[in-house]
Amino acid sequence: xxxxxxxxxxxxxxxxxxxxxxxxxxxxxxxxxxxxxxxxxxxxxxxxxxxxxxxxxxxxxxxxxxxxxxxxxxxxxxxxxxxxxxxxxxxxxxxxxxxxxxxxxxxxxxxxxxxxxxxxxxxxxxxxxxxxxxxxxxxxxxxxxxxxxxxxxxxxxxxxxxxxxxxxxxxxxxxxxxxxxxxxxxxxxxxxxxxxxxxxxxxxxxxxxxxxxxxxxxxxxxxxxxxxxxxxxxxxxxxxxxxxxxxxxxxxxxxxxxxxxxxxxxxxxxxxxxxxxxxxxxxxxxxxxxxxxxxxxxxxxxxxxxxxxxxxxxxxxxxxxxxxxxxxxxxxxxxxxxxxxxxxxxxxxxxxxxxxxxxxxxxxxxxxxxx
Length: 371
Description:
- The chain is α/β, with parallel strands linked by helices.
- It folds into 2 domains: 2-11 and 263-370, Aspartate Aminotransferase, domain 1, CATH 3.90.1150.10; 15-261, Aspartate Aminotransferase, domain 2, CATH 3.40.640.
- The protein contains 12 helices and 13 strands.
- It has helices at 15-27, 37-56, 71-82, 97-106, 120-130, 152-162, 181-184, 245-261, 263-281, 311-320, 333-339, 357-370; strands spanning 2-3, 65-68, 88-92, 109-113, 136-140, 166-169, 188-192, 204-208, 287-289, 301-306, 323-324, 326-328, 346-350.
């Protein structure tokens, strides 16, 4: 199988990740619940992972790195901490349902900043026009559908000028596109552990500017157990219950792997694979590739429409040819509406550090075979 669905989950992972998960299950219990060896081993792996993530994303205080079960979990915490019913919230036209649905559930007044694909200046202008009167803003760092790198730095600067707290969804950028959290001055940034960070499913992190945040869950933390209220300090305020210690151990191994190779090198590799894939298909008029004319605006993710084939049917046929891809709306109808593909959806190819040049060319040949 040629696995090209890493934008959903990094199925291909370093061997060290699998080893770390297994090792943790055999040697670590619950952190903060005792001073014995296995409890302290768990506490140490959580601390090491917080420090590694803080270093990677430029967070001065590792205690502001909160472990979550997913980016969706973190985004719900961030949104519910900043937004109430009727509040105006500005979001990009490329947001995932992990942003849109919590805002809808809260009854927020959502203003969508729409701009054509791969036009960052137009996106920044759209935010500038909509930010007056907003109580918060949300922007994805990279579109999960099109691999489009949005102008988060410019949008963060606009939010700082107007005093509007910003939430960054780093789900598709973490692990390949740099993020200076403290430099951006945003209120929160959420990310999964199982995508570009190469960790196991069921892991994630929420970066917090300060402790002014509302818990999504309540329960035991191993600290301040005598009081009914949740602790007022991070990370305990947002981490009730037993931690996913094997998951965090695997996440730490994924981050360590990235530290050695660098996110810059990973992005360069994935862009090279995209270049080979798209180059093989460039002369085929029946294939539409949603590609940026400026390669620096796109990661190793590309959406494709293949002749007159229904996208789900195309993905099923590619599967029979040994190529695993994602088809449909990718849980991001706003992005498809903005790009004009809401009625048809797309087939998404997403490359990883572990895909090869040969696989990229073979995947393109499989597309041609469908035609």
